[in-house]
Amino acid sequence: MQNSAVFRPDLYPPRTSLRGNPKRVFIENGVHTVLAAAAGLAILVTIGIVIAIGTDAFQFFLRVPLSEFLFDTVWTPLFADKRFGIWALVSATVLTSLIALVVSLPLGLIIAIFLSEFAAPRVRDVLKPTLEVLAGIPTVVYGFFALTFITPIIQDWFLNFGIEVSTFNALSAGFVMGIMIIPLVSSLSEDALSAVPQALREGAYGLGATRFEVAWRVVVPAALSGIVASFILALSRAVGETMIVAIAAGQNPTFTFNPFVPIATMTAYIVQVSLGDTPYGSLEYFTLFAVGATLFVLTFLMNIASFWFVRRFREEYD
Amino acid sequence: MVVGQIPAQQAAEFSVDLPRRKAVGWVFIALGLLSILFALFILLLLLYDVVHRGLPYLTWEFLTGFDSRFPSRAGVLAALAGTVYMMGFTILFALPLGIMAAIYLEEYAGDSWFANAVQINISNLASVPSIIYGLLGLQVFVRVMGLNRSVLAGALTMALVILPIIIVASREALRSVPPSIRDASLALGATKWQTIRHHVLPYAVSGIMTGNILAAARAIGESAPLIAIGALTFVPFTPNSPLDLFTVLPIQIFNWTSRPQEAFHDVAAAGIIVLLVVLLILNSLAIFLRWRFRTQF
What we know:
heterodimer, A: 318 residues, mainly alpha, MetI-like fold, 2 domains, B: 297 residues
């Protein structure tokens, strides 16, 4: 191998070679320390999140038994008869996220394959940034769109089948969330697809495969780990999405998988409590952190799963 | 996965009917185009919905007035001022920290355990839901540091939200500067920091700025973390000091959207037009910068 273009910090002169000039040594060491400290902030933020949320989630579990939190299905901390079954919120999050994935995964993957394997470079250069616009629109705007435009259409349409759809429902919120996530799936999957070496495609063409067969039977399997990682990140995004579900899916914690009725996701519940005046130290205040901790743990596990997938199933070439 | 022999079942599936196999490809191309058109069609519907509803309310009085209980008198000024004010502080906090962290990771860190720990943390933080940052801000900035629901508390929270984005974008910009530039400077006897300061950063600055503008655009549209720290939804004044209460555009829009009167939905649409125009300006600026200062090595 020729001396490659990879930047190798370890090849640069060590800091001790400046021994002759104390002022330069001082500046060099100082800059290094300050920059390292700035980078270290990232670790501090993670620790901060764990401590800030963990302590008050702990306060919550001192007052409410973990078994009730995990096994009850009624969530009514803001009522006189308080019950703390997280499943009422988790089911809503699962429902809206699943609807979003049903929309975004197939569309995102088809678009990724199309852009990577079929579209001419010039077409791709136009379509890709245009699709990215979808990801740049603020989520509060999607929430508005879901509530004021999609929901009435859904209501009209399902009325034909005698199904009454509520103003706040999981279907509308989930659908719009799915549209929002399409660019995330399509651009991450496309990265994985275009990283597949050209030799694999040429090998398949040489054996007489058509363009679609090459894409579907050779390139997609070779890029599978990256595609699955993009799916998991899409799920993580959907689970953490807040404004769309807070606006369009309702604020009514119910354990149900009915997409036509008002529900409350974990994020929507945090919004609902934050909008009211909840005094510090009250049980309502601590529920914020119990729900926040659940949300953090769930998304954290998904991020780890996504890393693991990329590492474990990566096809190594060259 | 091991690429081995073709399983017997798949071999049996193989068909010599070439026109049919090619037709499958054409069907897929149609499907791909339809998918893209569908996504873009929804985008157009969204824009139509917003413009159609909001345009009648988008008057000079709307831009210069404060919020009101009456749809026809509601204005967006407090939210617009709050957004600008908060973003100023957010950039002030996030920009230097993000760029410094990026320089460290790209130019100094190498492959140490510390650098790896930082990298893992950053990629994890990038996918933590933004409302979680709101809970962190509520505990640390609002309560422990006693900043109340002020502009400063909001800006600090938002700075944490966009820090990972800034770091990733700045690193990419630094990586695009070829090593030969560094080698030349070092060979002439410059120290590492002198090399970075006088040779690497000037080449990377346009890329860094582009990334930062896009991060700022993300922060302007973000509302969940600010709701969690308790930013107000009804604010009839513009903030004058970093410790004042405030509201921002997306929160104001959220508030209007959740009011029961239908007319307020149209007011919300007018607010969305203002928000989208702000974002459009920022994104155009980013695209212009990228185009104007692109360097070919």
